[in-house]
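Quick start: load a record and inspect it. Here is histidine kinase:
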Amino acid sequence: MSSLPDLPESSGESAKDQRIAELEAENRRLRDIRDALIVRVESGSAHKPEPYAAFEHSVILAEQVRERTEALNLTMEELKVSNKALIRAREEAETSRQRLNDAIESIADGFVLFDHNHCLIQTNSRFRSYWRHAGVPVPAAGTPIDQVKSKALSSGLIVEEHSHEDAEGTVFLLSNGRWVQMTERPTREGGLVVLYSDITDVKNSEMARRIKALEESERWIRVVTDHVPALIAYVGADLTVQFCNKVYQAWYGQLGQSPLGMRLDEVHEPEFYQRLLPQILEVMDGHSVTFEFDETGVRGEQRYMLRSYVPNVDDNGEVVGFFVLIRDITDRRKTALALEQAYDNLEKRVRERTAALTGLNAQLRQEISERAAVEARLREAKLEAERANLSKTKFLAAVSHDLLQPLNAARLFTSALQEQSFGPRAEGLVRSVSTSLDDVENLLGTLVDISKLDAGVIKPDVTAFDLRDLLNNIAREFRQMALAEGLRLDFVPSSAVVQSDSQLLARILRNFLTNAIRYTGQGRILLGVRRRHDHVLLQVWDTGPGIPEDKLTEIFQEFKRIRPSGSQADKGLGLGLAIVDKISRMLGHAVSVASTEGKGSVFSVRVPLGQLQPSPAATTDIQKVEVDHGMSGARVWVIDNDLAICEGMKTLLEGWDCRVVTAVSVPDLDTKVDIASAPVDLILADYHLDNDENGVDAVAQINGRRSQPAPVLMITANYTNELKQHIRELGYLLMNKPVKPLKLRTVLNHVLRG
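Running the structure step on this input writes:
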């Protein structure tokens, strides 16, 4: 008989019982064989062997049976010992399992364990409480991880999901209003441990920091309004001046005293206040008012003012004050009076000459000639007035370079500070300054864009392009803004190919989304695309208070803002939709709006479909390149006529381990390096230089003296297509001001990699 195999310790209780039964049956069978052999020997016949041989055989057989029986008994004893050891091991395993369960339950975070097939094994009560609070059944053991994630999203357990490549894990907003951060760790056996940490307090602290940044931004807005050439103020319901800029204060301040906190009847002379009173009563009744008045300043100057009063309505529909915008139109008024006087004189002459018509035909012809001459002068005066207005608009568009220069320098210095390590408090202040600079840049950019559009400086660069990247970038940009306002931004991607100017089209969508976030108190915003036969509709939906039907066209006018009941005061100038209207007319894209009061609005822009053309292998207009950090020792020459820009650029580039030489002109650079032979990896030049020079000519002089031309990055505040095309033809890289440090670093890496 063969020896019995050992039972593995991992066998269950039923396997042990079955093995014991098999051994007992084998024992009984051996006993039966032994008894049969003994009976056969003892009941011999004619064919039996000799008695002694039979006896000897039975003895041998009995000995073999005894040996097998002893081996079987020994095996039974060993099996009993193994059984006891197995019972003890199972009890210890059960104790360890209970301790592990207790440890998992004591974790403050949500805990989930998946096996090597990523199927659910175990969860703790904190994780299960998330599902119970949302009224969703907890996933059962064995559920795959993909089904757990999809069920959490589809059931509404997860309201929002945010992830960033630099963050440790994904952040979720749950249906109970709590924020959790998910981190995943693989186990040794190929499984997965997932922890959900509550970071609600951290998010609340972040919101407090954002509020502080907004307060700092408000301070910058005050700085900007103080430099706007118009009188700006806010008057409360008690007719006291609660806000005014420096221009307003200088005009109405009596003996150097600020009009802040004073009632209007104290700010103005009694007689002048009585003239203003009807308009004040009308605006306090909820109507916008625009009118012209002549008045005398505190220093005796006689000026003619165009006043606009806009009511401020609270959540209950009550007027709690009004905004005041006063513009000096004295020169325009004088021109109008001169024209009116000329017309009066002309009519007087006509009457006088008409009375003498009898027999004075010669004099009549002379009067007709005089009248024609006067009319010609009037037309000339009108043309001069129109040219003066257009010249003002073109001037504001042209000085955008000078407006953006100090802002560009401040951004460079701020970015250089962000590269340093000063501690959490200082780094927070630097980030706040950077955010405030963004707000100032947006405000100035809006004012300058309006002027450029009016002056015809901006020309569309219409090409066929894929909407995918444009929409994805805008959605990522505004999702965080919506989140900061407690809103949810949904996005439906699209890969449609359209025919338009990508930058101007992006500006339209950004203005739509900015308005949606500004005027939506709660709910969600949707950015999406509807395909039609030969065009697409890019749409932004919101759940805001809606717009009255009679105001749907008014909102596209400059400085017009419809503030619904219950909306908060904002920093906008009422130019966003005016810019949209001008850009859409320039591109030939129809813009439409539909709104239902109390439910929300939808803004749409119609864009024709296009067809992509084969793109060249390389382009000189840098849009997006892969970021690398290998800039150590890069040699860069910076040419800019603004010393602050030079210093800021040098500080920023040296923080990236570059070797930088700055100059305000080519002769200045010639005193610092040997232009012909000194090694250089990149020339970074401003397009606008002093003495009517430009960066293109300066770079041409430098590369003309070198045996091997150096790569060139041209920086400018000029957005015209003519300049962009000229730079492309020269093979230079191009960036517009204000310079984004991250984009600049990307360009440097692109150039250094060749």
